[in-house]
Specification:
- By secondary structure, this protein is an alpha/beta fold.
- The protein has 5 helices and 5 strands; from the N terminus they run αααβαβαβββ.
- It has a 3-stranded parallel β-sheet with strand order 1-2-3, covered by helices on one side. Strands 4-5 form a two-stranded antiparallel ribbon.
Length: about 190
C-alpha cells in the first residue's frame, strides 16, 4: 500500500478488498511484529493449522557500489513510501534509477512527477530481459523516461570541495559511473 504510487493503483481498491476480507471473517492484527510478538509456534499453539506469510518487498536495496552513501541516494522502496506519505519534496536536476522491475518503473515515474528534468533507468540487461511488464515500460517511455540498457553502475560520484569543507553541496551526488555490459548465453539464473 505505502510503496505503490497512486497512478498505478487506486488506494480505494485496496480498501475495498480489505473490506471484503473482513466481511468473510478475516481478522486483521496491526502493529504486531513477527518473531517478537508472535511466532509460527505461538500461532500453532493458538490453534492455527498453517501459517502463510506474504509480506511483499518491505526493504529496498542500494547498488553496492562506492559512493552509495552520498546525499541524494535513496533506495526505491523508501523513496516511494516517502512519495506516498507526502514526505518527498520536489526534485530538481536529473534522476537515475537503477533496475528494471516494477519498483524501478514506479520510482522513475514518481521522480518525473516530482519535477526531475530528465529521468534515466539504468539496467544491466537488454529491453527483452526487463522484469517489468511491457505495459509499465511503455508508460515510462511515454512519460519521457530514458533507458540506458546493458549498463551497470560501478560508482556514484559525490561533490567534494576540499577548499571549503563547509560547502553545503559537499557530499551530494553529482553523477554515476557505469560500465557497458554485453549479454552472455543464458544460464540457470
Amino acid at each position: 500500500r505505502f510503496a505503490i504510487p497512486n497512478f498505478r493503483l487506486d488506494k480505494t481498491l485496496i480498501d475495498d478488498e480489505i473490506a471484503v476480507l473482513k466481511e468473510l471473517g478475516v481478522e486483521f492484527k496491526t502493529g504486531v511484529m513477527f518473531g517478537k510478538d508472535i511466532t509460527v509456534d505461538s500461532l500453532k499453539a493458538e490453534g492455527y493449522a498453517s501459517v502463510f506469510m506474504g509480506v511483499g518487498a518491505q526493504a529496498g536495496r542500494l547498488p553496492g557500489v562506492p559512493g552509495e552513501d552520498a546525499k541524494g541516494v535513496f533506495n526505491a522502496v523508501d523513496f516511494l513510501k516517502d512519495v506516498n506519505m507526502g514526505k518527498a519534496s520536489a526534485i530538481s536536476g536529473n534522476a537515475v534509477v537503477i533496475g528494471g522491475g516494477f519498483t524501478a518503473m514506479d520510482a522513475a515515474r514518481s521522480a518525473k512527477r516530482l519535477g526531475a528534468e530528465k529521468v534515466y533507468i539504468v539496467y544491466r540487461r537488454s529491453m527483452e530481459e526487463l522484469p517489468a511488464r511491457r505495459e509499465e515500460v511503455e508508460h515510462a517511455e511515454e512519460e519521457g523516461i530514458e533507458f540506458r540498457l546493458l549498463c551497470n553502475p560501478t560508482e556514484i560520484v559525490g561533490y567534494n570541495n576540499p577548499e571549503d569543507p563547509r560547502d553545503p553541496k559537499n557530499g551530494f551526488v553529482t553523477g554515476i559511473k557505469c560500465v557497458k555490459m554485453e549479454l552472455g548465453e543464458p544460464d540457470a539464473k
